[in-house]
Amino acid sequence: MDASTGSCNGCGAAGTALMKLSLGKDFFGRAYDRLSPSTDQSPKWYCEQCSMQKNLQRDFRDISAELDKLATGQGSQLSNTDEFQRASLRLREILTLLEAAQGRSPLLAGSDVKRLMERLTTVTMPA
Ligand SMILES: [Zn+2]
Q1: What are the DSSP calls for 61-120, one per residue?
Q2: Residue 107 Cα to ligand 1 middle (Å)
Q3: Disulfide check for 27: which of 59, 78, 92, 109 has CB 3.0–4.6 Å away?
């Protein structure tokens, strides 16, 4: 795909600089490609704004998935106190960044982030 003639996979913007998103590692430092090999076969292109939001969305999803595991008593990265702290700080940061984008976020809603933050504060840490 020629990046110069494509449009953003997030907001559809054309005629702007697009970058192929490299998922790299997930929020907890695990390699992404192993988890979702299909991602590599259909690379997506994003404008600068959307690629930033895509990174936020990725972290949001990682934290959300680990919180689900924690809530159902499965092994979770969030059972580690340091990771738990890091995740709650990151959610606060994500929300701040989303609010700075003034609602122009086709990929991630601030209300979803707030809901996850509430879940995080109410979840019971295993002793
Ligand atoms: Zn875009």
Answers
A1: HHHHHHHHHHHTTS--GGGSHHHHHHHHHHHHHHHHHHHHTTT--SS--HHHHHHHHHHH
A2: 9
A3: 59
